[in-house]
From TrEMBL:
Species for this entry: Croceibacterium salegens
Keyword Lipoprotein: no
Regions crossing the membrane: 44-64, 91-113, 133-156, 162-180, 217-245, 251-276
Superkingdom of origin: Bacteria
Keywords, in A-Z order: Membrane, Transmembrane, Transmembrane helix
Segment forming the signal sequence: none
Protein name per the record: Glycerophosphoryl diester phosphodiesterase membrane domain-containing protein
Keyword Transmembrane helix (UniProt): yes
Length: 293
């Protein structure tokens, strides 16, 4: 973790100048604040992350052994994706339910990270239940808008020319990352600022990230890259150890590590969102305290 923080600090440099109206993202500060938030609330945060992220993902990996196999056997990718498609076709309702519960858990973790009075898990999850529909609605709006844009850039151009469709697709990818960055603070806005209107939350996230969009995207990229590297290293070690115990043990080990990394990523990224929101909004979590009074 110290290595990641040092790398972020070197990348950050000295970009903040006096008199600027837009606060520049301080990556090193955001990382340190995020880790401090997790450390101060680790007992309750890890419980919620375990229930809402670790266990569901582990169950999914054990129910889809072909997917776990594909992680170590590239030749099995095609078969794994076919099995995955069949699984989604049968269990779509369960996937929606789990996604809903994970949304509640995610918002609950944000509440736990935000309030310095350390609310109970039950209080935090109540906030998650109250905010989850706004969270879903906000990203449905973004998804629909992006879907329409995809139809214009790819669908309509495909009717005219394959080359134009390819160009449209190439344009679409960076726009997707840009939209992800601009609206990434929606969960933090919903919880930390007690916003209920999804459109207001989208607008607020757009406003908060103004002037920092590419910098914030770079920060997210560094975090994701670090996670991938760590996961590859750990997976290689765990796969080797569990392979000595047999193929079934190896599949379980792969599922275990994947589920653990999923929970770690979810918790860490939510802490980063909270810390970034604090920088841009200049808040310290006092707003959410009113919810428990």
């Amino acid at each position: 973790m110290a290595t990641i923080a040092g790398f972020i600090k070197r990348r950050e440099g000295h970009s903040t100048s006096e008199g600027e109206q837009t606060m520049k993202l301080e990556m090193n500060r955001a990382w340190n604040d995020a880790m401090a938030l997790v450390g101060a609330n680790k007992d309750v945060v890890f419980v919620v992350a375990g229930v809402f992220f670790f266990l569901p993902y582990l169950a999914f990996m054990l129910m889809m052994p072909d997917l776990a196999t594909s992680m170590t056997d590239p030749a099995a990718d095609e078969q794994a994706f076919e099995k995955m498609g069949e699984f989604y076709g049968r269990m779509w309702w369960l996937i929606i339910l789990v996604s809903l519960l994970q949304g509640i858990g995610m918002l609950g973790i944000l509440a736990l990270l935000t309030d310095h009075r350390r609310p109970t898990v039950a209080d935090a999850l109540k906030i998650g239940v109250r905010k989850v529909l706004s969270y879903i609605a906000a990203y449905l709006i973004v998804g629909c808008g992006f879907g329409l844009l995809a139809v214009v850039l790819v669908g309509l151009t495909a009717a005219a020319s394959t080359a134009l469709a390819t160009i449209g697709f190439v344009i679409l990818i960076p726009l997707l990352f840009y939209a992800f960055t601009k609206f990434s603070l929606v969960p933090a806005v919903l919880v930390k600022e007690d916003v209920g209107n999804p459109i207001t939350a989208l607008s607020r996230s757009w406003q908060l990230t103004k002037g920092n969009s590419f910098r914030l995207l770079g920060f997210y990229f560094l975090l994701g890259l670090a996670l991938v590297v760590v996961m590859i290293v750990i997976s290689l070690v765990v796969t080797f150890v569990f392979a000595l115990l047999g193929p079934e043990a190896m599949l379980f080990g792969n599922g275990l590590i994947s589920a653990l990394m999923n929970a770690v990523w979810a918790t860490g990224f939510l802490a980063v969102l909270s810390a970034v929101h604090d920088q841009f909004a200049g808040t310290s979590g006092s707003k959410i305290s009113d919810t428990f009074e």
